[in-house]
Amino acid sequence: MDMTAMCDVAFLLLTFFIMTSSFRSEEAVSINTPSSVSNLKVEETGIGTVSITPEGKYYFGVTDPIEKRKFLNTLNTNLKMNLDDAEKKAFLEVAEIGVGKDRIKSYLSLSKGDREKAVLPGIPLDSTNTELIDWVRAYAEANPSGQLAIRGDVKTQYPAVKILFDELAKVKFYKFRLITKGE
Amino acid sequence: MAEVQVKESGGKKGGKVRSKKGGGKPDMTPMVDLGFLLLTFFIFTTTFSKPNMMKLNMPEKTDEKKPEMTESKVSNTITIVMGKEDRIFWYQKPLTDVTVDDLVETDYSAAGIRAEINKKRASAIDTSKFTVIIKPTNEATFENTVDILDEMEITGNKRFAIVDLMPQELQAYEERIARPKGQ
Question: Cα–Cα distance between B149 and A112 in angstroms, integer?
């Protein structure tokens, strides 16, 4: 049998998938987003994401690599993290950061495997420590046109969302995107 | 499946066969295999369903706290209170004299809260100014919030606000939630 045609088809499809694919980024947390009828698609660029786990821990992630680099530099300066080059590289590898500035150095110096296993405390956000807000501000400062998306789990309790809304309102952040999945 | 090109049988070894030009096509089978293997890999690693998102603008918080809601006529509003275990209540009363009996229980289905919103909007004095006041309690989940925002999208309500519960309402809610469902 002549395999040439089949081979052509296979490589054609392969080319198509390579062109269109975006790799599933490693997520530090698995979040099951609620569904909605909204059909706005999440953009790849210009978006910073706050993820809220069912336990109410906050994670912050930036999808676009260029924005992420800018964000990292701003964050590093603003929060005086003093990250060295190796730690910065590690930062860029992690899709979503789930540790505050106190522990970020030790977290980023872990090996890749250990990082996945580590129990993350989340970025602090409560009435006494609003570090997450500093992260959001650093993102807004580094990427003025960027928008903030909130990715909550189906089981996330409302107070965790509410405190985020309230604290963001204090720094005059009123516009959000809520990430959901299609029905 | 594939035709394996049989080497010319016979004891002839050496390059004598090759010297025949156009004698045979190369065997494409391994290439097809490779093509499909890579194709499978790319299909699996591609994220097909990009998450959706919905826009949410929170009201600006100004220092001169002027509760806009009290100004709007009661019959032009509906207040939705989301409670624990996916229970949901609505009422249409002035905020200050809401009691436990005013909270009407419904559900998140189309025949539930959506029907109520539509009914109340139809009977509103000024339909264009019909406002939905969304009050998630601390026991509500993020999913509940998204569901209600979704209802706003479905029913086409542009005027809605997410507000915290007032002590009076909270008390009514506490009493109401203590009653078993369906009463």
Answer: 39
